[in-house]
Amino acid sequence: MPYERVAVIGGGLIGASLALALGTRRLAGRLVVVDPDPAARAALAERRAADAIVPAPDDAVFAADLVVIAAPVSAIAPAAASLLPRLGPGATLMDVGSVKAPIVAAVAPRVPPGVAFVPAHPLVGGERAGPAAAAADLFAGHVCVLTPPAPGDGDGPTFRRAADLWRALDMTVEIMTPAAHDSALARTSHAPHLVAFALMAALGRGGDGLARYAAGAMRDMTRVAAAPGPLWRDIFFANRAAVVEAAEEVLAEIRRLLDQVAAGDDRLLAELTRLAARRRALADRPGWAAR
Amino acid sequence: MPYERVAVIGGGLIGASLALALGTRRLAGRLVVVDPDPAARAALAERRAADAIVPAPDDAVFAADLVVIAAPVSAIAPAAASLLPRLGPGATLMDVGSVKAPIVAAVAPRVPPGVAFVPAHPLVGGERAGPAAAAADLFAGHVCVLTPPAPGDGDGPTFRRAADLWRALDMTVEIMTPAAHDSALARTSHAPHLVAFALMAALGRGGDGLARYAAGAMRDMTRVAAAPGPLWRDIFFANRAAVVEAAEEVLAEIRRLLDQVAAGDDRLLAELTRLAARRRALADRPGWAAR
């Protein structure tokens, strides 16, 4: 049993999926999920997501040996601040936020002696939200990034134990610094999400009738723009500098290709062919196959 | 039987799928597919896509009452120019190119008396290519746009007969001017494709390791960037002015949202929430459901 007593703070898509995954694989001795929203608690209860489902942290949470904060990015540091003073020696606090450096900066200095802090980011999600969309197999086949607050933290038994938990959910675990994580994810996720929202905004400029002519490309390129606004406002703001840098790169690449289109520059063909070959190579990855 | 003798010029994804769809539903008395590529002909033969599969237009093609040119955009006008003088009275020439105004401008003046020209664009496709990826149900549930060369052409029996053929494949038929089609498709398809290629280019700036952290959003947003380079070079160049205009709108929308991110402008939340609601409303369309 990797952890005897696990508490998950937040029963949204990630928290509820984690609870279901731990329960299905019997990876937690006793599991409690905390969510202040009665509708979320009802959905969690209906899915039998945990041994206990409570509206606020209670003694079972404070006695847990693993507490996972699965809250929106802006809520993680406040939740950690209120939980940390009450956790016992040997406890591990983990968060699963999509931005790491600001969370690590806010939380790490508050971690008391004897308590470990493991910042984590399982690279899963999508446009769905809430416990009704949760799935025990949400994590399988994907990457989970751990970002140790200090260099060397990642080598210790606490991080190894946390990494083993994610590996038990069939994830590949990677160790990165918080800043490297935020820079990489700005490029691979956050800026692309901003582009997806912008594509919806541009489509809206064409009037209501235009969407009628939107087919598979637009459907797939805007899928994640259906995600909750507050969640993405949080991520964009928390990772502001890296998102701006990554989005500027996307803008520059669109501009570069568009200039070739406008000029009828036939180097465009070699560019498109090279990019298509790279995309097809990525399709060989698990989960990336053409559908 | 909508047409007695049908010839499809080009056995790629669209041409082969059309042949399979017509054959499966017995919508053509006799069906011939023309493709100069021996490998394509072998794939078409293996899939039993037509009654005859030939390397070049022959008497069966010239005697057809419906000839469909399913070639890359840059090859359509040359193919039409060589076919038109040899088609008999009562024949209909159709093309299925993704750009309409330049094709109509090049082909319509060459259409001899007694022959009809029906420019069509079934809004289907994707990143797959070639007859091996063809499917008889490729068209079902999607829109097919017909762009009459002259106002009023769309009201005649020739266009009604062509429209009925696409409807028999479970498509919704829309009549638009060639220019309106090209402007709409630049926004709903061509500019988004350019963005997909640009996202691949931006990902490449980050080095080979970065793709490891690309999850579902990048997968779906770059899916169509795996499409053949020559096909998209053709479309971008043929629809240059409209693609530039549409891509400038996307650039402006990315810039607008990015400025709000950079400034920490909390109007961003209302924007994202509004755009997400619009995207979720689109998800109610057939084929657009969240996956």
Task: Explain the overall architecture.
Two copies of one chain form a homodimer. The first copy, chain A, is α/β, with parallel strands linked by helices and 291 residues long. Chain A is 48% helix and 14% strand. Chain A is built from eleven helices and eight strands. Chain A has helices at residues 13-24, 38-46, 59-62, 73-83, 101-107, 157-168, 178-205, 216-222, 229-238, 240-263, 267-282, and strands at residues 3-9, 28-34, 52-54, 66-69, 92-95, 116-122, 143-146, 172-175. Chain A has an eight-stranded mixed sheet, sandwiched between helices. In chain A, α1 (13-24) links the parallel β1 and β2. The longest helix of chain A has 28 residues, at 178-205. The relative contact order of chain A is 0.11. At the A-B interface, α7, α8, α9, α10 and α11 of A face α7, α8, α9, α10 and α11 of B.
Radius of gyration of chain A: 21 Å
Which chains have the largest interface?
Answer: A-B, 95 and 95 residues
Strand order of the largest sheet of chain A: 3-2-1-4-5-6-7-8
Q: Beta-strand level of the residues of chain A, as a percent range?
A: 5-15%
Q: Summarize the main sheet of chain A.
A: 8 strands, mixed
* Assembly level: homodimer
Number of strands of chain A: 8
Shape designation of chain A: globular
Helix- and strand-based class of chain A?
Answer: alpha/beta
Number of helices, counting only DSSP H or I runs of 4 residues or more of chain A:
11
Task: Give the N-terminus to C-terminus distance of chain A in angstroms.
Answer: 37 Å
Unreliable stretches of chain A (pLDDT < 50, length at least 5) are none
| Helical percentage of chain A | 40-55%
The chain-level mean pLDDT of chain A equals 94
The ordered H/E elements of chain A are EHEHEHEHEHEEHEHHHHH
